[in-house]
Amino acid sequence: MSTTVSPLAPKRYPKMPEIPGVRIATAEAGIKYKGRTDLMVMVFDEGTEVAGVFTRSKCPSAPVDFCRQNLPGGKARVLVVNSGNANAFTGKKGREATALEAKAAAAAAGCKENEVFLASTGVIGEPLAADKFSHLLGDLVKRAEPGAWKEAAQAIMTTDTYPKYLTAKADLGGVEITINGIAKGAGMIAPDMATMLSFVATDAPIAAPVLQDMLSKGTAKTFNAVTVDSDTSTSDTLLLFATGKAAERGAPRITDPKDPRLGAFRRALNRILKQLALQVVRDGEGARKMIEVNVTGAKAARSAKRIALSIANSPLVKTAVAGEDANWGRVVMAVGKAGEPADRDLLTIWFGEHRVAHQGERDPDYSEEAVSAYMKRDDIVITVDLGLGRGKATVWTCDLTKEYVAINGDYRS
Amino acid sequence: MSTTVSPLAPKRYPKMPEIPGVRIATAEAGIKYKGRTDLMVMVFDEGTEVAGVFTRSKCPSAPVDFCRQNLPGGKARVLVVNSGNANAFTGKKGREATALEAKAAAAAAGCKENEVFLASTGVIGEPLAADKFSHLLGDLVKRAEPGAWKEAAQAIMTTDTYPKYLTAKADLGGVEITINGIAKGAGMIAPDMATMLSFVATDAPIAAPVLQDMLSKGTAKTFNAVTVDSDTSTSDTLLLFATGKAAERGAPRITDPKDPRLGAFRRALNRILKQLALQVVRDGEGARKMIEVNVTGAKAARSAKRIALSIANSPLVKTAVAGEDANWGRVVMAVGKAGEPADRDLLTIWFGEHRVAHQGERDPDYSEEAVSAYMKRDDIVITVDLGLGRGKATVWTCDLTKEYVAINGDYRS
């Protein structure tokens, strides 16, 4: 945990409305941190459906394995999240911990164990002593209340410097529904997913397969388009819960992903996913600047994304931005190393509106002074046009600062 | 340039012998740096053969293009290298600069332009004013002398904190031959090759195709197995020159890569390449520790190398080592993100001789105290056994420190 809030933190936070059918409670379980909450329980009314997207790590955490196993059921009644310990690479003990948590959570919520979802974030490789907090779950479920969204976002923080939470409204068949989301991130953020946990809930009555379709598609240009340090965590978990309570107010139940009434909801969901993902980047460990990388003119969208990620993950590009240096030579380097089709002599590069390079060399009209002034901003946009085709992609990252090294040089100890 | 020498610099430097047929001179051309040499000329006697390996960047520098064009001829008479400016992404001006240099160098050495080799290292994207130093080449060739190997290594440095030069002897058909090598590196070092320049010369009489075969094979486990920051430069150049002068002392001319008399030479060459590559890593920007990553038990050698590079390039692993933290959880993370076959529950991880994780969880016999003491060393060995097959690989990198960020945050300005 950092005591200094990122300079890129939101200036204002939204007031979070309630989501009918969702109740939340948090506790100080003392798993690792002292003097702060580190355990969060989200309780869902009967009939809540769920979808999820997880890390692509070949070494996922025990809770990720657990969630993957329950997801096909499509039903959720309780979510338990702890911070301070990731319960990852904990072998048999890890599975015993999730089993213990699941049993306690199911007993507390009065549901089946396959309606329980779990997530853990923090140190990898240390056994999670679930017996030290599972007895708290009964009380947490009892005192859960609908308004505690901000508190939920706070309880799941690790090296985050501010809580991340957002809300949106959308029309579903003439009825206003609500979507709330929380997230935690900071280090180890990279496609695909990262030590990134995000939980989104809505009162819209949408069937689990439809939720899954929207969530899987929605992550490509949001959570899977952000990177802090190219490292991928063992624990990434994004869950979307739909209580269906808006049906009581006349909202239609949606069972077909192609249902045209879904348009506004999908846009609102994607907006929430994107804004949560950007908040995660803006709180990248040690981040002082947000960087948006646009690649256009690639042979294909896939190629554009690879090049954009090569730029966004380049330590040399990221340190240059930290130093407020419009070092487009390093952008050229990052394009070159991506291994994707590129022709040096067709490249055009902009920092913001400033075209610094054109057709394989420095732009003759380029003003170092103007670009230097631009580089002092908090938000830097790097745009590269490859001049080859119509493929394009956008990814987001942050700069690489001494604080990143300081934070990660002594995180475990 | 840094004023502080890396703590990982060699404790002793070799005395460099002469290579018959090679003469060297350096000059202060004032290309970017003041008060130091930044121009180096290596002159070769007639009959010198050459082989080369270059960056795989899709946006190579003008000198790389130039060398690639001349390489098929297999003959070299003069090498011109400057530091301070990479002549990369300089478009038409870049090609004009190499043409001017080539013309001046050929005139100075009395050879054809296709016997000239060029390399430039430094800032990308700034036009190289070759007219400011090409008039110096005539004098440089005239005053070139056989002993200036250390001076050559010094003239090609950029952010290097110490010059890199090595020598070796080998037997070729009963005659002792010599191999000398110099290199520069520091940042932007990654497979395949990086802002890495290296020039190796020998008096052995070996035909260009045989040199090329040995050099291409030799780089895989040497220069292409080291990484500082995963960034690949536009300028990487490794050239191997053979003057053939040892023939005068009875060394046989080798024209077949399978010639059994080549064994000792090949081993000596590979040793030079490996030691130069390691010296480059030991001078990684801001490096305080050298890290060797061994991966064994992979499905295949290729898979092992990908996993080893995933570990070696992980900012979280590298910052943990900088913080002297045996954070093997991050090693698990890096294995997981590599996308190669891996089974969490079969993983074994060692720091040095200390087995910290076994069969998917923390080693019960693991002593935090002993490992912490180990982590204080300059040289850290991380070994991962995947338990799946017989594929193995070794790569080398350095830690990621605040100094790396400081060096790269204000390099261009």
Automatic annotation (TrEMBL), chains A, B:
GO MF, one example: L-glutamate N-acetyltransferase activity, acting on acetyl-L-ornithine as donor
Active site: T195
One Pfam family of this chain: ArgJ
Site (described: Cleavage): A194, T195
Pathway participation: Amino-acid biosynthesis; L-arginine biosynthesis; L-ornithine and N-acetyl-L-glutamate from L-glutamate and N(2)-acetyl-L-ornithine (cyclic): step 1/1; Amino-acid biosynthesis; L-arginine biosynthesis; N(2)-acetyl-L-ornithine from L-glutamate: step 1/4
Enzyme class: transferase
Site (Involved in the stabilization of negative charge on the oxyanion by the formation of the oxyanion hole): residue numbering on this chain: T121, G122
Protein family (similarity comment): Belongs to the ArgJ family.
PANTHER family per record: ARGININE BIOSYNTHESIS BIFUNCTIONAL PROTEIN ARGJ, ARGININE BIOSYNTHESIS BIFUNCTIONAL PROTEIN ARGJ, MITOCHONDRIAL
Quaternary structure and partners: Heterotetramer of two alpha and two beta chains.
NCBIfam families: ArgJ (TIGR00120), PRK05388.1 (NF003802)
Name listed for the protein in its UniProt record: Arginine biosynthesis bifunctional protein ArgJ
Chain's gene name: argJ
